[in-house]
Specification:
The chain has 420 residues and is mainly α. It has 15 helices and three strands. It has helices at residues 2-10, 13-38, 40-48, 52-55, 57-66, 71-120, 124-127, 132-174, 176-224, 226-232, 235-260, 262-285, 289-334, 340-344, 398-405, and strands at 357-365, 375-383, 413-418. Strands 2-1-3 form a three-stranded antiparallel β-sheet, with no helix packed on it. Helix 8 (132-174) runs antiparallel to helix 9. The two termini are 55 Å apart.
Length: 420
């Protein structure tokens, strides 16, 4: 998760504040969830053993406070309170999911804009060694993949881990032995599945990034050179080149989605068996329906919360492993924000220059990675309001010299002088 922390480091302070607020909402949601689950216990306990109303002063006082005319009416009131608690918990959970999704999309928009800024502020020579379709893919596709398959799942892991921790904490207070056995069993089951599918998810994620890049490059070539494509009748060739990477990209993406859902059916089946085993356990350790019914109901309702939460955590981890190559690709280019070239190319206000003489003195230039100079020992002057023609054979460096005059390249040697 080091990459997620690195992305968080880049976020502006308002977004970091939104992330902190979101974590508080997730904690509140977990507390409401456990309150909704625990609210079912008084209803089931009294339903199984009506004499508890007179046995406990608190229940007796509440019975008199609500003015229940009969035992059935009192049970109805308890059922409505429990239902209200569960409903409020569910509604707040929807609100938290909305906030989490909104935050993820906000980050996605900010990262896309920041990447575009990082690219635009690079020197002209940077674009000579980069494919424009690769940069477009990072801005439009890989950013969305990084957020949808890494950042949003990471926030879901935080939310559901909090739910599981608080829920199990409450269950441990009720029956430590049974709760620990259930925790170890299901944790081991999910860990086993995770270890089995992790290598495949990483491989699928890397291949998806590669084939998505191929799709962008082929489509950019075809549409960018559409005149040549139409004139030479190359439509079929480009379509043929596009079909294979597109099919492989969708195939590996489908594989990752199937693997992220893999343990769901297995765990649901095992969960039903676990409920039966708990019922038998309570028959041996508890006395009477009044003790068994509330505990069994509590564990069933808790399982109804815990198993989907565990599945969501597993699914989120699977998505993170699939989407991590996209996040690494994005972070690699976001590092351009801290480069010297980016800082020096930031726009700043300046007064327009009106020189009387533009002069090149012994100017030379060598492209990055080249073994020799493209230009060497160039010296001439251009008076203001004059026209100069640059003549030379193909490859002599006319375009490079023009780019230097426009300020797109910086000479590797010599000087450019204004009025001396």
């Amino acid at each position: 998760m080091q990459e997620v922390i690195e992305l968080f480091h880049y976020l502006p302070k308002p977004m970091k504040l939104n992330a902190a607020i979101l974590l508080v909402f997730m904690l509140c949601s977990a507390l409401l969830d456990i309150a909704g689950v625990m609210s079912i216990m008084p209803f089931l306990a009294i339903l199984g053993s009506p004499d508890l109303i007179t046995k406990y002063p608190a229940l007796s006082s509440f019975y008199n406070y609500v003015g229940a005319s009969s035992f059935q009416r009192f049970c109805f009131y308890l059922a409505m309170i429990s239902f209200a608690a569960i409903t409020i918990s569910a509604a707040f959970k929807v609100f938290v999911q909305y906030r989490a999704q909104g935050f993820a999309q906000q980050v996605s928009g900010w990262v896309s804009t920041t990447l575009l800024e990082a690219y635009l502020h690079q020197p002209y020579s940077f674009f000579l060694t980069r494919n424009s379709s690769e940069m477009a893919r990072n801005i439009l596709s890989e950013t969305a993949n990084a957020v949808d398959h890494v950042l949003h799942p990471a926030s879901m892991i935080c939310a559901y881990s909090t739910v599981i921790a608080i829920m199990f904490g409450a269950l441990l207070l009720i029956d430590p032995t049974l709760s620990l056995v259930v925790l170890v069993f299901f944790a081991g089951l999910y860990s086993l599945v995770t270890v089995m599918v992790t290598p495949m998810l990483r491989a699928f994620g890397s291949k998806s990034v590669y084939y998505n890049e191929c799709r962008y490059k082929i489509s950019a070539e075809a549409l960018g050179g559409i005149k040549s494509v139409k004139a030479r009748g190359l439509e079929g060739l480009y379509l043929e080149r596009f079909v294979m990477p597109s099919a492989l990209y969708t195939k590996f993406k489908a594989y990752s989605q199937v693997l992220s859902q893999a343990p769901r059916q297995l765990v649901e089946s095992v969960g039903i068996g676990a409920v039966m085993m708990m019922a038998l356990y309570f028959l041996d350790t508890k006395e009477g329906l009044g003790e068994i019914l509330p505990l069994l109901g509590l564990y069933v309702l808790a399982g109804n919360r815990l198993l989907p939460a565990a599945q969501q955590i597993y699914q989120s981890l699977a998505q993170i492993r699939y989407g991590m190559p996209s996040l690494r690709s994005v972070l690699k280019d976001m590092a351009l924000l801290s480069t010297k070239e980016h800082k020096e190319s930031q726009p700043h206000s300046r007064s327009p220059l009106q020189p009387a003489m533009f002069e090149l003195v012994d100017v030379s230039f060598r492209y990055p990675g080249a073994q020799s100079d493209t230009l060497k020992g160039i010296s001439f002057s251009i008076p203001a309001n004059s026209t100069v023609g640059i003549v030379g054979s193909s490859g002599a460096g006319k375009t490079t010299l023009g780019d230097i005059l426009l300020g797109l390249f910086r000479p590797t040697g010599g000087s450019i002088l204004l009025d001396g």
